[in-house]
Amino acid sequence: MRRSFVLFLPVLAVMVAGLVAGEDRKEKAGGAKAPPAAEKGKVAKPMPLFDLDEFVKEYDANKDGFLSKDELPERFRHTFDKLDINNDGKLSREELQKGVVHMQSRRRPSDFVFILVEMSDCDECCAEEIQIVYEFIRKLDTNHDGKVDADELKVGREQLISRRVDAIFKDLDKNKYGKISREEARGQVKRHFDELDSDNDGFVSRDEVTNAAREKPGSLKKGGKEKSSEK
Length: 231
Description:
The chain has a domain at about 50-105: Recoverin, domain 1 (Orthogonal Bundle), CATH 1.10.238. Helices cover about 50% and strands about 5% of the residues. It has helices spanning about 5-30, 50-60, 80-85, 95-100, 110-120, 125-140, 150-170, 185-190, 195, 205-215; strands at about 180, 205, 220, 225-230. Helix 1 crosses helix 10 and helix 7 (about 150-170) packs across helix 10 (about 205-215). The longest helix has 26 residues, at about 5-30.
């Protein structure tokens, strides 16, 4: 059973609520609404992300139609050998076109922070979201050395899991016995009840839900045995 499914409902609820609240705040703050749909019969022309001809024209200092390593902008020079397919020491337009993927910055999950800052059309709303991230990271840094190490990350993960499990039991454990019966189960817990009920006692305990949430994404646990989702 995927760890993510145990966290799915509360996480999805938070995401949807955040998006709705964000849009509401933007409208109140005078933020621009999405542009109206294109007129019928008209197709919007996409804006090119990278004009290869203009790039070559701009950096081809000796005007020979090729780019040498020295002519290539410094930020791309580390990719020169990958781009120079025929190893002739210069880059043709065709080589640049085929290797353009090597000239794109590798995206990282942490880029969402930069996107928030750069693309925000409501600075007040964006600052609020960044502050939430900032406060959470500060809490992860329990030794206050200005860094988040793997051990601190594990502690933070356990805290998040504990909160998610608390929310699930608060919502479903109506009789407050500390276990969720098949009758009480709803949503994903009901759908995966037999997988969660690892001891087959007819109830899902807090430990069973917590253990499921700790599983590595992509693993499947059924009948007490862990199975990989990959064939």
